[in-house]
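hiii, so i know i said id send this last week but things got crazy w the move. better late than never?? heres the sequnce for the chain we talked about at the cafe, plus the structure i predicted for it. fair warning i was half asleep when i ran it
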Amino acid sequence: MESVNEDRRHVYIVDDDLHMRNSLSRLLHVAGYRCRVFESAVAYLEAGLDPHDAACLVLDIRMPELTGIELQGRLRGTGHDVPIVFVSAFGDIPTCVRTLKAGAVSFLQKPFEPSVLLNAVDEAIRISCNRKKALARRHAIQRRFSLLSPRERDVFWKVVKGLLNKQIAAELGIAEKTVKVHRARVMSKMEVISVADLVRLSEACDDPERRAS
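okay and structure toks below
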């Protein structure tokens, strides 16, 4: 399974206040983060950033052209949908609630203590690492599933449903002995030793043919 390098911690700072960008960047560099700063949400979108192992976005609310909340909406569901720490001098309760409900990790009112920001960023990076690990695990499971032949996939889903070999054989119109062979291959290719393990892995298996049936 692919691993996530938690040492590659990136923080993207998006704020139209030059002093704030520089101050945040210095603080986070000292704390061991790799930082990139952007003067606007538009500049961030136009940068064409590559996804990193662990990353978060420190994002201002009020900016020209595109607000922080609007940027949050554009990033949702994309490959750059990283945990967000909002910072603002104009925050109010409705805005705070709105951003948190949309998935932000924290909402900090300017000015804030450096330790408060660092704690928020640490939490965001942990969330980012966990998301990447979960995604890597899902990809690894899907790669194993892709090794199954069409008939092995048929048996896979029947086993996951809890059917016995005899029932699977009847439904597929094949010999029970053949089912046992396919079942053994399924367990081997999926790298599991129990049906319970197979059921858990099935949640991460994407099978277009099964969806279409």
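btw The chain has ten helices and five strands. thought thatd interest u
miss u guys!!
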